Amino acid sequence: MMPEGATDTNSNESEAEKLARLLELELIQKRAEWKQAGARHRNARMMSFAFLFIIIIGGLAALFFAFSTVREERPKQRSTNTSAVRQR
What we know:
Blueprint: H1 4-87
């Protein structure tokens, strides 16, 4: 027959093993959640950088067209001003 102390230590070890397995499973699940959250964060950051890049390119294109139309209008104004000065 087995003494009572031997069964207690055996059950304690099995309880400890079960607890260790449960903790390991929980950590694996948490790690998977953290990886998914990190991937979502990276995707959101990339989308924000892409949006910012598009906004900057659009602003530069608008400035380019604005300055090109101003350059086209200035010679017309100067020619009308110089003709008005010559007529005086």
